[in-house]
Amino acid sequence: MTDLSASDLATIYAKPTPRVIAKARPEIDVHAKKFIQMSPFCVLATSGSDASVDASPRGGNPGFVHVAGPNQLLMPDRSGNNRIDSFRNIVEGSGLLQLIFFVPGIDETLRVGGKGKLTTDPDLLASMVEFGKPPRVVLSIAVDEVYFHCGKALMRSKLWSADTRVERSVLPSISQMIHDQTSLGEAEPQAVVEERYKTQL
C-alpha cells in the first residue's frame, strides 16, 4: 500500500465548486444562530502543543452553547471524567478549535471554527445554571469560520432512523467494559451507572 500525496488527491477529487468555497462564512448569521440554538449536542475538537488531537462530545439542553454575538460562542462545562484533555489543549496549545453541531432529526450539521479561552467569571457562571448547578468553567470561543455540512454523511448512516437504533443491551455496561480493560473499579450494571449519571449532570 502506497501513501497518497497531495498531487494524488488532485487526480482523485474534483475541485470544490465556488458555492462550496463561498459557504464558509466569517461569522454566525441568522441561520447558523438558529441551528446552534436548536442543538443539544456537539463535538469539540482541539489540538495540543505536542500535536496531539482530541475530540470530545458535549451536550445539554437545546441552545446550551450560547450565541453571544456574531463572532462569539460561550460553552458551559459540565461534569465529566476530569481528564480535561480539551481544556489542556486550549490553554497549552494554540487555542484553535472546531465544533460540529447536531440537531436531532436534521441531517445537515454546522461546523464552527475559532479560538478558545477559558474563564471562571462569577457572573457568567451564575448566568449558565443548568441541571440545577452552574458550570465549573466557561469556554469562550472567538469565531472566525462557520459553514453548514450537507446531510449525506448522516443520511448514509441513518443516524436518526428508528429502524437503525441499537438496544443498549447488545453491549456490556460501560462500567463492565472499563473494568475488563483496566481491572479497576467495580463492574456495575448499566442501570446503576445511568442512575448515578442522573445525579451528576
TrEMBL record:
<protein>
    <recommendedName>
        <fullName>Pyridoxamine 5'-phosphate oxidase N-terminal domain-containing protein</fullName>
    </recommendedName>
</protein>
<dbReference type="Pfam" id="PF01243">
    <property type="entry name" value="PNPOx_N"/>
</dbReference>
<dbReference type="InterPro" id="IPR012349">
    <property type="entry name" value="Split_barrel_FMN-bd"/>
</dbReference>
<dbReference type="InterPro" id="IPR011576">
    <property type="entry name" value="Pyridox_Oxase_N"/>
</dbReference>
<feature type="domain" description="Pyridoxamine 5'-phosphate oxidase N-terminal">
    <location>
        <begin position="31"/>
        <end position="150"/>
    </location>
</feature>
<dbReference type="InterPro" id="IPR024029">
    <property type="entry name" value="Pyridox_Oxase_FMN-dep"/>
</dbReference>
